[in-house]
Amino acid sequence: MATSARHWWVLATAGSAQLMVVLDATVVTIALPSVQRDLGLADASRSAVVTAYALAFGGLLLLGGRIADTVGARRAFVAGLVGFALASALAGLAPTPGLLFAGRAAQGGCAALLAPAALAIISAAFTEPRQRGIAFGIYGALTGAGAVLGLLLGGALTQYLDWRWCLLVNIPIAAITLIGAATVIPAHSGRRVRLDLAGAATSAAGMTALVFALTEVPNRGWVDALVLTPLAVGALMLVLFAVGQRTVAQPLLPLTVLLDRVRGGALLAIGLPQVALFGFFLVLTYWFQQLLGYSPVRAGLAFLPLALAIAVGSTLIAGLLAARLTTRALVVPALVVMAAGMVLLVGLTPGTPGLYLTRMLPAEILIGLGLGCAITPAVAAATSGVGGGDTGAASAAVNAVTQLGGSIGTALLNTVAATAAAAALRAAPDRTTEADATVAGFDAALLTAVAVLVLAAGVVALVMPGGRRSGPAPDVRPGRRPAASA
């Protein structure tokens, strides 16, 4: 097999694993009513099916990335893949809520090892600027569209088979991917370092506490003790983690990975849009299922143009332009295009003529194209220019800001929507229906999302230098050699 052809098979293998990880964050969302009915879940514990995965994934990402650097990306990839398949079997066959939660948490923990390893493998396999741009375009399409495809797949499996297949479907996917890992991904010895156990403990505790607190905000509000306490604990743990990384000889996440202006700007360009995207999903999910009466499958299909637009933006636009334009030149306009798409959804009413075709569909296309054009060069920049021994850590940072951005968006925009809806009811209780108040809340959430995207564009334009291309750059730190193949 020619070397160039082998690299594309490497991308297909690692990309399949990344798609599986992203799918599982959303695939059970539509199935929750069926899960609750079959296992007798209480309303209060229903969300734990989703949060168990998110907590373990977010909490263990940095440790997973460093393990990939230590034992080698392929070994970490295979271990994460096997563990993910076993955890999927446990969750899919669970006869009780406790075993389901345990299986979902195990999935998240294995995903925290699998996702950084997959990105590290792709980053090391593609170093030529044009091919790297195309490869990261495909990676961006899989990552960006995966959440949408998860909703579609979850709806179809639940409606036509059984909710358990939302989890069991991972087993054949993992088996095929494992064959690819054994045949096309090159071995990598890693480097003999002692794991920073203190850093692992503080980062895991900090990330888990923050993600938990943020996922509880929509249900409890910002002033509840079960929100404020983990927020404080999480912030303290992450401060201790940052201090420790400055002094330990072999840090879990070298601060040089974060302090580089290009990588720092790229991480902002990845994380901040995730905050805004929650407003988009919040609005369209409500409109599709509650006001337009779509079935789960039809609601998933209504999101399909978004997935296609992300794929086009990632591959046909950003993937081909990444070798010609700087990261900043691609990312900043893309964020503005996303903001324009969000604006199209402001002011919707049930009586809006041609609601889907005139407003929702164009919004999906603009947001998808913008997201694809932003994520592709940003991920490429965030993982370029690091030594081979730090690729896993840089990849984990990419996944961590994605996870945190989504959690912050869930908490922030849910709060904005609820506050604005309550204010609308108080202002004119006799003339405002509950549906009117909900729409007013959505408008406030969307305008907040627009502000976040405009802020992101401004910050990236200021932080990220304009003279460095979005392809790979050499690592110029003393004592470092350029990244080798995974």
From TrEMBL:
User: What does UniProt list as this organism's lineage?
Assistant: Bacteria, Bacillati, Actinomycetota, Actinomycetes, Micromonosporales
The subcellular localization recorded is:
Cell membrane
**Cited CDD domains:** MFS_MMR_MDR_like (cd17321)
Mind telling me what this protein is named?
A: Puromycin resistance protein pur8
Give me the segments passing through the membrane. Answer: 7-32, 44-64, 76-94, 106-126, 138-161, 167-185, 197-215, 221-244, 265-288, 300-323, 330-348, 360-383, 404-425, 445-464
Q: Which UniProt keywords apply?
A: Cell membrane, Membrane, Transmembrane, Transmembrane helix, Transport
Q: Where is the Major facilitator superfamily (MFS) profile domain?
A: 10-468
Source domain of life:
Bacteria
